[in-house]
Amino acid sequence: MFYGLSRYLKNLLPKQLFYRGLLIVAVPIIILQITISVVFFDSLWIKTSKGMSRALVSEIVTIIDIYNNESEYNKKIVTDLYNQNFNFSVRFLENEKLPDIKVDRWFSPMDRTLRRELKPKFNDYWFNTMAYKEVVDLRIKFRDGVLQIFFPKERIQASSIRIFTLWITLPAFLLILIAMIFLKNQTRPIIKLAEASEKFGRGEEIKEFRPSGALEIRKAGYEFDRMRKRISRHLNQRSEMLSGISHDLRTPLTRIKLQLALIKDKEISKKLSGDVDEMEKMLNEYLQFSSSTFADKTETFDISELIKSTVRKYKNINISLDQSEKTIFNGRKNLIQRCLNNLIDNALKYSKKVKIKQEKFIKNIIVLIDDDGPGIPISEYENVIKPFYKIDKGRGKSKSSVGLGLSIASDIIRSHGGIIELGKSELGGLKIKISLPV
Ligand SMILES: Nc1ncnc2c1ncn2[C@@H]1O[C@H](COP(=O)(O)OP(=O)(O)OP(=O)(O)O)[C@@H](O)[C@H]1O
Ligand SMILES: [Mg+2]
């Protein structure tokens, strides 16, 4: 049960660090304010109002005593005195009745205290605290008429609750605002670090990363930067080594090719030159793999045009292309082209008919490559994406396969923040679905 509750709470709470921090600061402030308000309201405000209302009711009782027992002359003197000293206005309305409808509010603290104090003293009364801004209209049944008394609201109300609420909420808002500014500054370096890591993970170049913020965050940033530089150096070394080897091997290979042409036995020469061609192709692929990331700069280009021209270069009637509208994409053009080449090469290598479809959606571009070959078993989907992995060597028409094509293609798509998925095609072979974010 507790597990479910904590999971529910976790879902409810904000996910971002900034909002979590804000919650940690704001919740205690708000709880404190509410507690103070309740305590103050109950102990001071209500009790004071009660005392004041009681004193007021006693004064009214005195007036009624005087109205009951004194002569007309004395009544006038006392009424004038009350008016002068307490700001009371008292008058007797003969033959008048109390209004039928009560207008005192049930939830107003002022009305409630006044009602509580009036009830034990008078049977028939009526009052209205809303009709006038600063005065209460109180009517009490007296003999065959009504005694109407106007008295200032401040006689029964300690101080304005609005001012009190303002004073209690304004500092709270101010505190939360200050906390927000501080928190924003504290979370910015973490966001910066996360962004830089994401960029580096995608294979994009990070020009300069300056660690900032609190000591621990700064240390994390500094260590990230060191790690990034080490990995970059390592990758560069690997690419340089691979391209160095491939490059150096090309010269002797060319020389072998020339010498092969001179061999008289044409059969041996043909076989050997086939092997040499294969070696050359492999070397080219190693070279490609070593420089598949990091190398190019991003640019904005028309990806539908790129697909069209790539397909056109094959000059193969077995490739059909279905495109919707012109689609602008921001990425590394050469890499995208290499990815397409690898996938189309595979399709042509393992099947006859290839169908390419490109669609544009609001958030992404989808490219589908279908073929009618043998396809790939579902259990191998994960493996074929790994470098140097081939399903079985006798599969393709050509033996010159290294097992890097799909691996490079998926690297390229992922480095653009996209997804590559393998599946079954309606044509019977493999379906490759590429989704690139626009
Ligand atoms: N369209 C396809 N139809 C059937 N099998 C495929 C298809 N594409 C790839 N494969 C299988 O997946 C394996 C890995 O493909 P990948 O492109 O990585 O290597 P490769 O084509 O063998 O070699 P390379 O592309 O480096 O010359 C291939 O060996 C092949 O068995
Ligand atoms: Mg391939």
How would you characterize this protein structure?
By secondary structure, this protein is of the alpha+beta class. Among the domains are: 14-159, 2-Layer Sandwich (Beta-Lactamase); 297-437, Heat Shock Protein 90 (2-Layer Sandwich), CATH 3.30.565.10. Helix content is 57%, strand content 16%. The chain is built from eleven helices and eleven strands. Strands 6-8-9-11-10 form a five-stranded mixed β-sheet, with helices on one face. A four-stranded antiparallel β-sheet has the order 1-4-3-2. Strand 3 (135-142) and strand 4 form a beta hairpin. The longest helix is centred in the N-terminal third of the chain and has 53 residues, at 17-69. It is rod-shaped. The two termini are 44 Å apart. The mean pLDDT is 87. Adenosine-5'-triphosphate binds next to helix 9 and helix 11.
Q: What percentage of residues falls in helices of 4 or more residues?
A: 55-70%
Specify the CATH class of one domain: Alpha Beta
Give the SSE order as H and E letters.
Answer: HHHEHEEEHHHEHEEHEEHHEE
Looking at CATH, the homologous superfamily of one domain is Sensor histidine kinase RisS, periplasmic domain
- N- to C-terminal separation? 44 Å
The distinct ligands, each listed once, are: adenosine-5'-triphosphate, magnesium ion
**CATH architecture descriptor name of one domain:** 2-Layer Sandwich
What class would the helix/strand composition place it in? alpha+beta
- Largest sheet properties: 5 strands, mixed
Report the average pLDDT across residues: 87
The total of helices stands at: 11
Strand order of the largest sheet: 6-8-9-11-10
Q: How much of the residues is beta strand, in percent?
A: 15-25%
